Automatic annotation (TrEMBL):
Keywords, sorted A to Z: Magnesium, Nucleotidyltransferase, Transferase
Keyword Transferase: yes
Entry-linked Gene3D superfamilies: MoaB/Mog-like domain, Spore Coat Polysaccharide Biosynthesis Protein SpsA, Chain A
UniProt cross-references to SMART domains, sorted A to Z: MoCF_biosynth
Name of protein: Molybdenum cofactor cytidylyltransferase
Superkingdom of this protein's organism: Bacteria
Keyword Iron annotated: no
EC code(s) of this entry: 2.7.7.76
Stretches assigned to coiled coil: none
Stretches assigned to the MoaB/Mog domain: 171-306
An annotated Gene Ontology molecular function: molybdenum cofactor cytidylyltransferase activity
Amino acid sequence: MHFGPLPLSDAEGAILAHSLRLGGLAFKKGRRLAAEDILALEAAGLTEVTAAKLDGGDLAEDAAAARIAVATAGDAVQVAAPFTGRVNLFASARGLLRLDAARIDAINAIDESVTIATLPDLAPVEPGQMLATVKIIPFAAPLTAVERAERLAADGLPPLAVLPYRPLTAVLIQTRLPGVKDSVLDKTVGVTRDRLEALGGSLVHEARCDHDEAALAEMIAAMIGGMPLADLLLIAGASAITDRRDVLPAAIERAGGRVEHFGMPVDPGNLLLMAHCGGRPVLGLPGCARSPKLNGFDWVLQRIAAGIPPGRAEVMRMGVGGLLAEIPSRPLPRAGIGTETPRAPRVTALVLAAGRSSRMGPTNKLLAPVQGAPLVARAVDAALASQAAGVIVVTGHQGESVAAALADRPVTFVHNPAFADGLSSSLRAGLAAVPSEADAVVVCLGDMPRVASAVIDRLIAAYNPLEGRAICVPVIDGKQGNPVLWDRAFFTEMAALSGDAGAKRLLGRHVDRLCEVPMEDAGVLYDVDTPELLARFTETLALNSPGPSSDASSPA
């Protein structure tokens, strides 16, 4: 890869290394220079630019990051679209992250251009939570380095996966001493049930007996013999276990069980007991398990639920990071202090399908049949196939017919009775229906049938308001197209617009927060406004060779 000053005569196709702002000209770092860009730079008086130009041994940053991410990702891992050489990986299920740390380290050691950053091994994760990010440091990586990373990732199971929690069933036995209130035991039942249900499991039965070895042994035998559907036996003693010969471990052995390990290097949670009886795992709970706060019992329960129950050796290795007690130098979770766990952005797709199709004559173009489905279905299906968290369709002109044509699709319909007032009225109606938890909206046009789901995914991957990418616009050959992704911060401003021009007039006001996302698909510039364009589109589909159109849509 060449990096450095390039004469404009040799700069077409090169990647701009630094942002340029000259008069009315503004090119951002990472822009691939097209022929039109070269002419504009020459007109601005430049003779050279600092840029990167790839050679045959290089793989562009997005392609390199995508290949490594796909090779690395295993079960229950969602791979986002690449952007600026970065691909984020997210959990698609609740469970534990499982890493092959040695292979991750080996991939990071291949070449300085290739990096993977992850959460710790066995971290509990939620759906949508970020697990890892693959980042190519420069504008390209050596193809040989990417291929070597793929080989390492393919050597066995993928080195990064999520182990989903299984729906565990459990039985709880509690022992009693004189003076122990039933309310204390009732609270333990509720806390234990909540713990299990948080992992997708359930507490199927609870029983109580005296804190006595013989009584507890009899209860254990009865529960083991009568719990064919339960996966786990939990025992909460009225008094903490202080020795392997104490009431709980002695009762387990008396009932025919085997104590595997007592104690763990996790605080709170030191006094956990692990055993087996009747072919099932048995846990003697530490006193802290009566509280909902995180403790060592949670770590063991998570691993059992994820299908990787820890043995004696695994428990004894939990000491590093095992200090869970709140201390003055650590923020207190119950005080609401701390940072939010990184997660996938929640982006709602908004498909505007309310227009009058005035240039189509008497025909509503959105309902025109194309290969057995209405034209509007192509835009809606692309949104549904994308990583958008939900799809809202705004209807207006012939709204009942449009909704009926899409009735079998899992979308939310919003009718705009003021559709004759222009695109802005439909935008306003759609924004009002966007869920409060959504971070952003991607505004799609119902008459743009060649926008693929990958385009929407790439916009979502580019979106990062903390890094100044709050508005994401697809660009091809220097031309801005649709759909456009908008951060929630702009909703009020967008809702205040009027007329038929949509939100395009806002782009110039927020150049500092605008991100142009390069695309290879000319579908972002292609809409169907006339009978001639509809006929041409239908013909190209029939030939299975859709051609580009000169009809370009302005950003909505």
